[in-house]
């Protein structure tokens, strides 16, 4: 449950406001509930930070809802304008690399060739021994 | 010399009438004089002078690399430049120095271009004003032009000179201002929804968005992978064609570049207009369009017709949904692309070391501005499992309908579409900031973003000055990979309208000699 605690802590530091549900959307779409806000913040790892930001999301959703008016029956989704062409695949040979030092230079926290992430608080490292060394018999 | 076209200066360099070092120094001096515009985030003075030195050696030996050798250029700060800070005007990348050059940057350097610096933009290229970056807004050079100031004197008195400055448009505002103010001969911008064409129109320069797949995106910090394109800003269409010729072509590092062979080209002069068919999309005539832009659009259509071209009204039926569709797809791809910024491998990292998730969240809160965060959150909303079909996939389907609208029009015999680029001329900053970024983007991208969704080439060409003395540009849209044809039509149009040169003497103090017609009028262009 440490995750939840951390999240509430974070939001408290950002002002600690709760999200408000939006007024009922005339098109009956989802309201921006406090639950949704928390969910999005969790996924995006970006916090709303203010009531204005929540209002902006509501406007963005309302705007996007206009797409419902378009008849897309039988229409395939378009992922790329180059869908009729073959993607270029180069041959599987190593042509570059060996630049670990250059790349590590850009990080704030590096140990040897590792990027260092903060520790996970809930993982406590306790001495734990399954094996006891044989006693020294003569 | 700085007022010349790229072609003219290139000739002057080849004939030894000016040296790369002289050019470089003049541009650097001008950059300093026009600092008020805030067009540049980083001025790479040492790098540029060194490049100029090397270029000079080549010219002395008669081994110039080509048309761009010794030519000052600028690059938008969302292109990676090795050894030169690349910030995207964001705290997230402040201090970030890439270990490699974007392919398009490398191509410019390989041709001997002089990199003057990195230009200012909206944070992560999100915006239509170049007002929302951490280094402050970019000011439109036309705010200080004689043309604009004279008109203003007639209207208002006693207002502080600078308080009513105009925006450049965005998000490549820094690049547009840099070119418009003569500090370089060409600049790279990026174009996802109009970010090159919009500021080009507001700053009175040519803004080209090439076909998607023609120019490599490797090293362009991505916003929307399926729509992003490096853009080219220059003072005339021929110059844009020169730069495109150098940048276009397959890049093994960008698998979305097409493999068709591409060669540099020169633009022919159009003489027989009778074979040309210009389409005017009727849905682009919106109530928000200013009467001045509308009238210029009309005038342009009549111009083509009077010279023998066929000009017909066409329909792009899904136009009214285009901006909504763009909004959903853009925020969704942004949500994905921005996920890489977690503070671990590069970029900003917060001080807290509580846990990885807390570190990510705090880093991103500190690193991104409201606009970026807003788009990430919206995008994540549309990508939620329960929303994916109804929003993201729905938008992808609408995208196909929009792309198909264009295909239908081009299949019916239309060669090039003619539309406005922007709703009006550049507005004062004080007016622009009355609405938020998302609203403004939705308004200002109206004529430009459908082109990105369809992956077509488009170019904004300055046409005339408004009654306030400010530039108004019109947009030409071409068929996919028919960039050369598009530019040929644009070049003809440019020649017809003879858009006036910006008069910036007031801003330049003693630089006015730059704009006199020097004895180089005798430079022969082969």
From TrEMBL, chain A:
Keyword Membrane among record annotations: no
Originating gene: GATC
Organism this protein belongs to: Phocoena sinus (Vaquita)
Alphabetical GO biological process terms: glutaminyl-tRNAGln biosynthesis via transamidation; mitochondrial translation; regulation of translational fidelity
Subunit structure: Subunit of the heterotrimeric GatCAB amidotransferase (AdT) complex, composed of A (QRSL1), B (GATB) and C (GATC) subunits.
Catalytic activity: L-glutamyl-tRNA(Gln) + L-glutamine + ATP + H2O = L-glutaminyl-tRNA(Gln) + L-glutamate + ADP + phosphate + H(+)
Protein name according to UniProt: Glutamyl-tRNA(Gln) amidotransferase subunit C, mitochondrial
Similarity comment: Belongs to the GatC family.
SUPFAM superfamilies recorded: Glu-tRNAGln amidotransferase C subunit
Kinase listed as a keyword: no
NCBIfam families, per database record: gatC
TrEMBL record, chain B:
A GO term from the CC aspect: glutamyl-tRNA(Gln) amidotransferase complex
Catalytic activity annotation: L-glutamyl-tRNA(Gln) + L-glutamine + ATP + H2O = L-glutaminyl-tRNA(Gln) + L-glutamate + ADP + phosphate + H(+)
Residue intervals of the Amidase domain: 27-145, 167-487
Matching Gene3D superfamilies: Amidase signature (AS) domain (3.90.1300.10)
GO biological process: glutaminyl-tRNAGln biosynthesis via transamidation; mitochondrial translation; regulation of protein stability
Region feature (Disordered): 146-167
InterPro entries attached to this UniProt entry: Amidase, Amidase_dom, AS_sf, GatA
Active site: 76 (charge relay system), 171 (charge relay system), 195 (acyl-ester intermediate)
One Pfam family per UniProt: Amidase
Keyword vocabulary terms for this entry: ATP-binding, Ligase, Mitochondrion, Nucleotide-binding, Protein biosynthesis
The EC number(s) this enzyme carries: 6.3.5.7
Subcellular location as annotated: Mitochondrion
Annotated GO MF terms: ATP binding; glutaminyl-tRNA synthase (glutamine-hydrolyzing) activity
NCBIfam families per record: gatA
Subunit structure and binding partners: Subunit of the heterotrimeric GatCAB amidotransferase (AdT) complex, composed of A (QRSL1), B (GATB) and C (GATC) subunits.
Protein family according to the UniProt entry: Belongs to the amidase family. GatA subfamily.
Function recorded in the entry: Allows the formation of correctly charged Gln-tRNA(Gln) through the transamidation of misacylated Glu-tRNA(Gln) in the mitochondria. The reaction takes place in the presence of glutamine and ATP through an activated gamma-phospho-Glu-tRNA(Gln).
UniProt name for this protein: Glutamyl-tRNA(Gln) amidotransferase subunit A, mitochondrial
